[in-house]
Design a protein that fits this description.
Helix content: 10-25%
CATH superfamily of the largest domain: wza like domain
Distance between the termini: 105 Å
CATH class of the largest domain: Alpha Beta
Strand content: 25-35%
Strand order of the largest sheet: 8-7-11-9-10
Largest sheet: 5 strands, mixed
CATH topology of the largest domain: wza like fold
Structural class: alpha+beta
Radius of gyration: 28 Å
Order of helices and strands: HEEEEEHEEEHEEHEEEHEEE
Number of helices: 5
Number of domains: 3
CATH architecture of the largest domain: 2-Layer Sandwich
């Protein structure tokens, strides 16, 4: 085929418009294209070749001049090389093109449990655990401080037995949000299920402003549990607060200090003070 002067001009190289991944040192070129992803392709000075192309269920789509091209299962970088090769085969000299992901549709994560909007969410190239929880409306007030991520599943069911032969990661949200040493936000993978468990409960009764049950974190103290119940009333004997705990299946009164940590299922009682 003869190359016209117009066609011998430099055409855009297939380059990825993604911002590089922040986490894990991974670049956007490593994103694996899948069915229903929408690619945006533009060719310098050849607007008729550019456009938005939806990857079909078989992983391919029709591209001008070439016909069917297969993209599913390829990284952006590998697809770049493949499309460049096909355009150079009898069409253009040193073809140059720009490709980006217009819409992520093939890869998803699932968020379940104590979040405001549980469901499945499109996995963008650099999505982290914190970002996925934000998309789900963040955790509820009844959420525990531990999140379980079941890696690589294909359903949105909460992990019934997270340790039973499945690759799981446990993350303490308090440590993650506070930037505690040794904690890092988790990069998500296609098919991950994020499960936010319901917090354990303690019961607060007696001379407190709002008796009832309250969700606790793993490090909640007796004093903090009383604060959840609105604090002690003027008639309460704070120094005589007591805890009823189930020990070996039996209710037992435990001597505690206000700075001691409560345990799930504890009943904290504040008696009336003597006048």
């Amino acid at each position: 085929m003869q190359h016209t002067p117009m066609r011998t001009l430099s055409y855009a190289i297939l380059a990825v418009l993604f911002v590089p991944f922040v986490a894990g040192g991974q670049s956007a070129g490593d994103y694996v294209i899948g069915p229903q992803d929408v690619l945006s392709v533009s060719v310098l000075e050849q607007a008729d070749l550019g456009g938005k192309y939806a990857v079909e269920l078989d992983g391919s789509f029709t591209f001008p001049l070439i016909g069917r091209v297969h993209a599913g299962g390829m990284t952006i970088r590998n697809f770049e090389a493949e499309l460049k090769t096909q355009l150079a085969d009898g069409f253009f000299r040193n073809p140059q093109v720009t490709v980006s992901i217009e819409q992520y549709r093939s890869q998803r994560v699932f968020v379940t449990g104590e979040v405001r909007n549980p469901g499945s969410y499109a996995l963008t190239g650099d999505m982290t655990l914190i970002e996925a929880l934000a998309k789900a409306g963040s955790t509820t007030q009844n959420a525990s401080d531990e999140v379980v991520v079941v890696r690589g599943g294909k359903g949105a069911e909460p992990p019934v037995a997270p340790d039973a032969g499945k690759d799981t990661v446990r993350v303490n949200l308090n440590d993650l949000q506070s930037g505690a040493a040794g904690t890092h936000d988790l990069d998500l993978r296609d098919g991950d299920t994020i499960y936010v468990a319901r917090a354990e409960q303690v019961y607060v009764f007696g001379q407190v402003k709002n008796p009832g049950s309250y969700p606790i974190k793993s490090d909640t103290t007796i004093l903090q549990a009383l604060s959840l119940a609105g604090g002690v009333t003027p008639n309460g004997a704070l120094n005589r607060a007591r805890v009823i705990r189930i020990v070996n299946g039996e209710k037992t009164e435990v001597r505690v200090k206000l700075t001691d940590t409560v345990e799930p299922g504890d009943t904290v009682t504040v008696p009336e003070r003597f006048f």
